[in-house]
Amino acid sequence: MDHRAPEAERLPVLAAPGGELDRLVLAGLRAVGAGAVWAVGDAGGALGGGSHGTLGQGPYARLAPGPDTLYDLASLTKVVALWPAAGVLWQSGRLPLDEPLGRWWPPAAGRPVGAVTVRQLMAHTAGLPPYTRFEQLYGREPAAIRAGVLAAPLHRAPGAAVEYTDRAAVLLCYLVEDLGGAPLDVLAERWTWRPLGMTDTRYGPLGAAETARTAPTEWHEPTGAHLHGVVHDPSARLLGGVSGNAGVFSTARDLARFLTAVLAPPPELPWGARWITASLREQTGGLAPARGLSWLVAAGTDPAEGTFVHYGFTGTGCWVSRRQGRWALLLTNKVHHDRNTQPLTDLRNAFRRAVFG
């Protein structure tokens, strides 16, 4: 397929059942080895989509994915729960982006993290350690983990490099919860999921009815079963399932609502056009890889093109371009099968080129 972005009027044709995008995803999944759900849309909603394969091995081989299949979003949590909550606080004047944390947030005062800013946390330029290892370093108690994250020395000087780390989202979650006066799951439901009608979206662990339509993730030796309705990410599990870095489960149907709102935010949304405009532009000052606030500039594109993406380790991903007025999502549970990510990377890049150029 031509690497130029298709014209807007061609998108419904490309996204039709059996169309070019459907065939591209089907062919790519043969190498990936997992089933998937995909969709493409614009500011008016979904223009088309499809699903292929099965939800997994053994008993899951009888189950097919679809728009109502719940997926462990992994790091898509950062944009579906944490990023909008930060936007609400920023728009209300409670979350300064460029004032060092130690000057205005008491828990950071006198600590290494006091030197970093919210913008650096969201652009992954804060210099925090690139690993979590929470249980090994701090134990299993959430209070001890919070204390350890706040006290940890920086890995490098703030602003020196782009280095993706879940610690940034965990630290920002503590800050957002303090300012918002409630846990992140409550804030996300109040400020994002309920206003947008995202009725399938929630933090785990899930109940029996939801788990029955959830894609399983990786084999978990301690329980002798695949993780299913329980968050895959070990840091989020330690924190009770609710964290800024991971923990949210959602469906293609709900994510279509979310991505549509990023392009056309309803006026009553407490985060909206100002926050989206501020976030979906390069924030890393020429450092690579270029990032916005929470979002990553899509691989193979120039920051000026304005195509942003976020991926989840389990196999999820979503893209948005305000300039082109379109969005896309591709949800798999790749880790259920193995951690060989290259086939999925190849499919993601081909899918992005087909939709956005």
Textual characterization of the structure:
By secondary structure, the protein is an alpha+beta fold. The protein contains 13 helices and 11 strands. Strands 2-1-11-10-9-8 form a 6-stranded antiparallel sheet. A 3-stranded antiparallel sheet has the order 3-7-4. The chain has a two-stranded antiparallel ribbon with strand order 5-6. The radius of gyration is 19 Å and the shape is globular.
Mean pLDDT: 97
Spans where pLDDT lies below 50 across 5 or more residues:
none
How would you sum up the major sheet?
6 strands, antiparallel
Question: How many beta-strand segments?
Answer: 11
Give the CA-CA distance, first to last residue: 10 Å
Radius of gyration: 19 Å
- Helix amount: 25-40%
Strand content: 5-15%
Summary, kept brief:
It is globular and about 60 Å long. Helices cover 34% and strands 13% of the residues.
Give the SSE layout:
Blueprint: H1 11-14, H2 20-32, E1 36-42, E2 45-52, E3 71-72, H3 77-91, H4 118-123, H5 134-138, H6 142-151, H7 166-180, H8 184-193, E4 202-203, H9 208-211, E5 219-220, E6 225-226, H10 234-238, E7 248-250, H11 252-263, H12 273-279, E8 296-297, E9 307-312, E10 316-321, E11 326-332, H13 342-356
Antiparallel strand pairs: 1-2, 1-11, 3-7, 4-7, 5-6, 8-9, 9-10, 10-11
Descriptive keywords:
alpha+beta, six-stranded antiparallel beta sheet, three-stranded antiparallel beta sheet
